[in-house]
Amino acid sequence: MAITATMVKELREMTGAGMMDCKKALSEANGDMDKAVEILREKGLAKAAKKAGRIAAEGLVANYISEDGKVGALVEVNSETDFVAKNEEFKTFAAQVAKQAAMTKTTTIEDFKNEAWLLDSSKTVEDVLTEKISVIGENLNIRRFVKFETETGVIVSYIHGGGRIGVLVELASQNTSDKVKEAAKDIAMQIAAANPQYITKDEIPADFIEKEREILKQQALNEGKPANIVEKMIEGRLAKNLKELCLVDQQFIKDPDITVAKYLEGVSKEVGTNVTIKAFARYETGEGLEKKEENFAEEVAKQMNL
Predict the structure, then answer these.
(1) What is the value of pTM for the model shown?
(2) Which residues is 9 bridged to in the sheet?
C-alpha cells in the first residue's frame, strides 16, 4: 500500500514520533494506522497514546445546568475558524444549544437536530443552525451532546480555556450540600486536566488490557530486558498505565499525595454519607477532527520524498 504524506502526518500527530519513524511504521504495517501505532509503541518511539487523536477543528464546548442542579448538559458546536468561535453571536447560539440539550428527550444527534427549537417551535434545531450559517457566513455544526439527570445526587459542569474543554460530572450522594458541590467541581477540574477514560478499572474492557499487556511485553523485549524479569516488569508498567486511565486511581491534582478515591473518602466522612462518581463526560473542541493543513502535508511530502 502506498504511504501518503497525510498518513505520515496523521500518525505523527497521534503518537508524537518522528516523521521517518512514522513512515517506516506505516510501511511495516502496510498502511494500517492502528498497527503502526502499536509498532511505534513497541519500539518505545510513541507515547502511550490515548486515541482521542488530533485536536484541530475550531468551535467551543458549552454547558447548561438547571436551576435546581438536577439536570446538566454539555455540547460541542464547531466552526471553521477560531475568529468565529469567539464571536458573541456564535457563543450565544452554543449556549442556547446547550439549554436545548438539557431539555431534550432524544439520545442521537440526528434526532436532536430534527426536534423543535426551544425558542421557536415552528423551526427545528437544524433550521436554526442553517440560519446561523447564513448569518455568520461560515460552516457550523452541532457535533455532539450529553445529558445527565439525577434525583438525589449532584451535577456540576466545568468549562476550561473559554470553551476549549468542557466537563460534566454526576456525583451520587444523599447529601447535596455546598461541600459535595465543591467536591464535584474539584472532580470536574481533575477530569479536564488529567483526561481519564474510565471511572474505575472494572470498566476497562478485558481485550484492551490484554492488548496493552502484549504491547508492553514487546516493548520490554525490544529494550533487551531478560525474559525472566519481563513478566514482572510489564505488570508493573501495566498497572501504572491503567491507573492513569482510571479517574479514581489518579493522583488528585489539588493534593498529589492522595488519589481521587481517597479524596472522596474524606469528603464522604465529612458530610456523613457516601459520595461516589456516577458518571462523567469530557469534550475537547475538535477532538478527533482534522483541520485542513495542505501546506504542512506538502512539507512532510518533501521531507519524506513521497
Answers:
(1) 0.75
(2) none
